[in-house]
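Action item from last week, closing it out:
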Amino acid sequence: MKSQQIVYTSARGWEEIGPSIDSPQLVLVFGQVDQIDSKEHYEYIKNRFPGSRLIIASTSGDIQGTSVLDDSIVVTALKFEKTQLRFVEKKDFRDSQRIGYRQKYFSKSGTG
């Protein structure tokens, strides 16, 4: 697995942390609501990682390395060499485990 982080702060804008990776399958985005709700930030991330699956979540503080940041966005792009990823989009998560079993995404033990 290879990873790359990109961090946005109001003071410094977008900064790439570590080497760039090509075509990550999964991009995790964490940030404060007012930051991740920005169309400009969403477009930047989407254009920076075209074809990648984005998972976006709000937080009250973001961790980058050993730092805790406020008023920021931390983006972690992941590229798996052998792992096959599957996704189910669901807005109501009360029955998400049952859906995973039905889609054969998880074994009955829940470990995958």
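Closing note: Helices lie at 33-36, 39-48, 96-102.
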